Amino acid sequence: MTVMETTGTRIDTCAGTPQQNRRPDGDDHYTISEVVAFTGLTAHTLRWYERIGLMPHIDRSHTGQRRYTNRDLDWLDLVGKLRLTGMPVADMVRYAELVREGDHTYGERFQLLKTTREDVLARIDELRGTLAVLDRKISFYADAGHGLASERSR
Amino acid sequence: MTVMETTGTRIDTCAGTPQQNRRPDGDDHYTISEVVAFTGLTAHTLRWYERIGLMPHIDRSHTGQRRYTNRDLDWLDLVGKLRLTGMPVADMVRYAELVREGDHTYGERFQLLKTTREDVLARIDELRGTLAVLDRKISFYADAGHGLASERSR
DNA sequence: TAGAACCTTGGAGTGCGCTCCAAGCAAGCG
DNA sequence: CGCTTGCTTGGAGCGCACTCCAAGGTTCTA
């Protein structure tokens, strides 16, 4: 399939996830319901992603039904990961556009990835702060046991 | 300033944040716009929080204007932290109700906190997974430099 | 005492990310 | 052949978390 097969190393894959029962490249013509099973997204959402430009144009069968490839699944994996970071769909669409526009958008894509990386780090830090608060409250509840009228003071 | 001055140890405080220019307890009768400045929330949001039961009943001046206390600010700090975890507002309202209902809800509150803690840990793990993907892509972009037609394969 | 700035309310409106609907075509099965 | 199951489309609808509005009362500064 793709470009890298011939090159030996595949650096730019978004795998990371199990890649459960995918078919080999060349045989990868998944129906929308198979993709639903792979990704956990609904068919509605998959079609909507396509409408808003978050997916590339998906291959069609001779009767016009969608046939997704392994590459499409990889892209959906990435989208899923980015979604977890809280990145707005509009920003992901922007990234998808950059990819479609070709190599001259290289720099912009690189920047976008680095910015996102920083955002994720910040997000993790925020969560750690929250975790500290929760741990403090939890040990308060655990210790206090009964003389806990003071909980009102939070 | 604040509470800790007088009591020495306060376990169940949600501080963690700077507690910037708060007035001492007893003098703590903040207007809504002061709370806006403290929290970064809008006045609309503060009033809405109250309407939906996410805030306790707020003291009023003799003419009916809201006067927030240090304790209210502490609560808003906690709410802010929980919001960062993605906890739905409805769940936070539930917690607020438990607090209002009194000590007999101790166990349920404890469980809720522990569940939330687990959620936060899971969330951090997800983000770390995403970070790994981003780092892989970033180093791909950094290395590739120019022969990057293959980026299409993501 | 004037004027600006701030506060009050219930209810309506907004933006995001889906989520669903209706009407119709297509493929597989007994 | 009829039936079920799955897919297609554009557009409408939904739930969440705000966000704003209109119309009026209050508080502060000069």
Characterization of the model:
Two copies of one chain form a homodimer. With 154 residues, chain A is mainly alpha-helical. Chain A has two domains: 17-86, Orthogonal Bundle (Multidrug-efflux Transporter Regulator, Chain: A, Domain 2); 102-146. Helix content of chain A is 55%, strand content 3%. Chain A has a two-stranded antiparallel ribbon. The first copy, chain A, is extended and about 70 Å long. The N and C termini of chain A lie far apart (58 Å). The structure holds a DNA duplex (30 and 30 nucleotides).
List SSEs of chain A in N-to-C order. Answer: HHEEHHH
CATH level 3 topology of the largest domain in chain A: Multidrug-efflux Transporter Regulator, Chain: A, Domain 2
* Average residue pLDDT of chain A: 83
Distance between the termini of chain A: 58 Å
GO molecular function (chains A, B): DNA binding; DNA-binding transcription factor activity
InterPro entries (chains A, B): DNA-bd_dom_put_sf, MerR-type_HTH_dom, MerR_fam
Keywords (chains A, B): DNA-binding
Protein name (chains A, B): MerR family transcriptional regulator
